[in-house]
Amino acid sequence: MKVVKLGIENFRGIRRASLCFDGHTLLVGTNNVGKSTICEALDLVLGPDRLNRFPPIDEHDFYNGIYLFPSLEEGLPPTPIRLRIEAVLVGLSVEVSNRCGGNSEFWHLLEKRVLAAGEIAAANPPDVVPCLRIETIGLYDIEEDEFVARTYFSHSPDAPLGELTAVPKTIKRQFGFLYLRTLRTGSRALSLERGSLLDIILRAKGVRHSLWQKTISRLQSLDIESDATEIAPVLRSVEKRLSRYVALESPGNATKLHVSELTREHLRKTLTFFMALSADQAHVPFAHAGTGTINTLVLALLSLIADLKSDVIFAMEEPEIAVPPHTQRRIAEYLLTKTTQAFVTSHSPFVIEKFEPSQTLLLARQDAGTVTSRKVSDATGLKDNDYRRFAKSGLSECMLSRGVIVVEGVTELHAMPVIARRMEEQDPSLQPLDISGVAFFDADGESNVPKFGKFFKTLGLRTFAFYDLLPKGNRKPEVLQALADTYEINTEHPYKGFEGLLAAEVPASRLWSFLLDLKISDESGNVMVPELQPSDAAVRSLAMQALGSNKGAGWAARLLNDCEYEELPGATKDFLAGIYKLFPRPVEAEEESQPDDAWLDDPI
């Protein structure tokens, strides 16, 4: 089974969202855009155990924490505000189809919608397939003074008018949904609490009643007093004193120590998995292992669960946390090949590169809590090969930013952030670009600048370009128009190469100091730096030769680091100054003028 659509109303930080999915899905976006909330929503509507909690939801599960609408008439009670999450499932298993046939509907794969009641004649394969709509509704019960939530079939033809049929937990278990919160799942993955990975494995294998009953019987048979003889006299004294007030008619000793109250729930919370991490170590609780080891254990359990279940839908938050790159790739590869459907949130290029552009949803938050999504593949103009090639070299970081500065090559990529840092140091009123969410991107050539600008702009990002004068002739009119349409700030500096810009605009004295430093450190290579300083024109020519011969060595950034602020090239400072104006520093709230103890003088 797979989720093809998810609707969210008034849940946590999302007031409204309508999201469509095509199989495996990578959710990317800025912090607090709603990635984790979407995973939590899937858990609430699909997870079999989430609603077992008491209460299943609370105040903070409602948008802005508002769960009551004040009455417009005095004396009348407020009206509960509901949260609602609806999922549409296709690829129904035989068992689900048999048990829920009366509640099924039809989903149009191309139009991405459920057919209405009068469209039954249009329910023809392969464009239309059976589907199941289920929804979880949560609200505050004023009379009972508690929060309630329950899952229903959205299409309930057999229910009384105005009501919906509840979805049994046994049906939810058939969906095979698992939600893995990386930071939180690891701490309880191998406990026996309800919903833990080990609990899921035991349930899948049918290990239930015998486990608990045998464990309880063994604990009951433990004779604690025989192992701690000094306790027995104390217990007998307590028993003797109790007999003065309470009739103790049991033969033998009327008091006894037990390990616990011996309930299944106590055992679930106390039993845990121990492991020996090395040859010289005794077995310790698995939670004492390193975070990376715990996350790798989670991966091992996932693979076991997938082997036990025919249908598995995973939602997994940031699998890259505390895991090395090769393990990140293995986790992503496993999710994509061994599960029916996976929902993943990630900021890691090693995870992002494993998902196709058509599988990657970029989330955005609009006004009033509305969350929207867009496939990266819809950002036309970028081929899949380009996407995969650049994913690890800055593309994924830029996709998560607010603005992107596109430059032609690696020299600019190293040099421009240095100039930005120097400008921020010079003028504390500037908001640092990284805090503003502005990233630099190396387009790897002049010809790539238009297409990457189009890619980023289509994703809804602010775009800025800084590129060289064309070596031979002018750019074609269509290219000039594409650059103008794509970039908010579109700067062609008047030099043939960034090295030419530095050689022309950095003072000759600074360039000569840079060249001497290369000569003294024996790094100048084929650049013949003379003993005595030549003319300014010769110095600039040598500097351009040196910078051009070692583009990947970071020499441009090294030169700029040594410059005084006034010596930095004006063309780059002017370009960056325009971007800083678009991302001003937030206005800080004014501090209260009264002293901290002024409240002491206020009347009570």
TrEMBL record:
InterPro entries: AAA_GajA/Old/RecF-like (IPR041685), Bact_Antivir_Def_Nuclease (IPR051396), P-loop_NTPase (IPR027417), TOPRIM_OLD (IPR034139). Residues 400-469 form the OLD protein-like TOPRIM domain. SUPFAM superfamilies: P-loop containing nucleoside triphosphate hydrolases. It comes from the Bacteria. Residues 1-52, 218-352 form the Endonuclease GajA/Old nuclease/RecF-like AAA domain. PANTHER family: ATP/GTP PHOSPHATASE, ATP_GTP PHOSPHATASE. This is AAA family ATPase. It comes from Pseudomonas hygromyciniae.
